[in-house]
Design brief:
single chain, 163 residues, alpha+beta, 2 domains, four-stranded antiparallel sheet, 4 strands
């Protein structure tokens, strides 16, 4: 979903794969912000609807997978789980307006560049492209098994949250 407003960040769909990693002040500020998010939900009509989830996830052009949540940052901006990935790997496709917003973030957290490197592609590395840990703890469930397990619990939406 491509979306731009004064209170949102990085709702973009990069068109080019990238292997160039950029870890600088902007990447560090974005990482610190997402790791210190204040609320989880979904972006709907420009607002965060708390404690709700999208019914699935999406992939970046380079196959990085999102979570099914959006996040409210300490700055008051709403973003998605691929925000750090976008500024680290797709910087040339990030809107200038978003880079200006990120530059204004207050430095929070004591994270290092190593922390950022260790967590980039975190969703994919932690959970695999089609597999993740379910609420019942069944690691490595397939998408169909996860759906059946959630259906048996009466949950119809995605209940993943990676941050």
């Amino acid at each position: 979903m491509k979306f731009q407003s004064k209170n949102t960040l990085l709702y973009i769909e990069p068109e080019n794969e990238s292997t160039k990693l950029t870890i600088d002040e902007i990447t560090m500020k974005m990482f610190n912000a997402i790791m210190n998010h204040t609320k989880v939900g979904i972006l709907l009509n420009g607002k965060l609807i708390e404690n709700d989830n999208w019914r699935g996830f999406h992939f970046c052009v380079c196959d990085e997978m999102s979570s099914c949540n959006d996040y409210l940052l300490p700055s008051g901006h709403i973003t998605n789980s691929l925000c750090v990935h976008y500024v680290a790997f797709h910087r040339d496709e990030v809107p200038k307006e978003d880079l200006i917003k990120i530059k204004k973030f207050i430095d929070i957290g004591n994270f290092t560049q190593k922390d950022v490197k260790d967590n980039l592609n975190g969703v994919t590395k932690k959970f695999g492209m089609q597999k993740w840990e379910t609420k019942t703890g069944a690691v490595g469930s397939t998408e169909e098994e996860e759906y059946d397990e959630r259906k048996n619990r009466g949950v119809e939406n995605c209940d993943c949250n990676f941050f």
